[in-house]
Structure formats: structure tokens, C-alpha cells
Amino acid sequence: MTNAVSAARMLVSDVVGDNTPWMSALHHRITTPAAIGAGLGENAAVAWWFARGWARALTNPLLPGEEPVDGTGVVGSDGFRPVARSTVNGETCSLSAVCPHLGGVVSWNDQELSWDCPLHGSRFTAAGGVIEGPAKRGLTPRAS
Ligand code: FES
């Protein structure tokens, strides 16, 4: 929100030739090595969660028909595809565990009974519907 206002003020300043002192400070902002380092660190963390999710899923084969205890969910694989399987109120759902946003592997949230993506925070119902984005569509159903 503040960046939009700042950008608008800078554009107006450029168009009308406003020489407000604080405006020149915004125009000359330099990205510091610390900011670059912080950005690289955040991207490295996302890459780590991505690799961790896929490795955990692919090294945990799920058996066909295996049902988690009511109120729980497990992530595993049915070969080379990550699968998210949960049981809520006696109903077991098997879904693709791959987040449709950018391919992270979701994990089960015991408190909310939801599938959450650790990469950018998308959340899905136990049946795969989108609760909140950035993902625009839900998790794809899979055969149990
Ligand atoms: S990859 Fe899941 S929210 Fe971005």
C-alpha cells in the first residue's frame, strides 16, 4: 500500500517538476547489499521448503486404501506423485499434494483441519477447495 502511494507521488513529482527534498531521497534510493542478502535468504528458504516437501512426499509411499485417523492428514506418494490424504468426520479424501500456485507440497494443519502450503501460504480444505491464495484453484482429487 505504501509503495503505491510513494510511486504515485514520485510520478506526479516528475510530471510537475516538484523539487520537494524528501522526494529526491526516494528517487535516489539504492538497494543495499544487506537488502540483496535478505532477498536471497528468503528465496533460499522457499527453495528449501520446496525441496523438503517433495523429498518427504516421495520417500513416504502411501498404500492404496490406507486411511489416516479421523482429524489427521498424511502426505506421501503413489509412485512419483505426491499425494495428500486426510480423514475428517469419517470422510477420507485423496488429493494431489502439489500446490497449484508454484508446485510446493502441502502439509496437514491439525488445528484448522486444512492443507497449507509452506511456500507462499495458500490454504485448502480437506476436500481440496481453496480457502485462501495465492493459489487460484484447488488441489486435484486422486483415487484413494
Ligand atoms: S507454491 Fe503454494 S502458495 Fe505458492
From TrEMBL:
> In which domain of life is the source organism classified?
Bacteria
Q: What Pfam families does this protein's entry cite?
A: Rieske
* InterPro entries in alphabetical order: Rieske_2Fe-2S, Rieske_2Fe-2S_sf, Rieske_Fe-S_prot_C
Q: Which UniProt keywords apply?
A: 2Fe-2S, Disulfide bond, Iron, Iron-sulfur, Metal-binding
Q: By its UniProt entry, which Gene3D superfamilies does this protein fall under?
A: Rieske [2Fe-2S] iron-sulphur domain
Q: Where is the Rieske domain?
A: 59-144
Name of this chain's protein: Rieske domain-containing protein
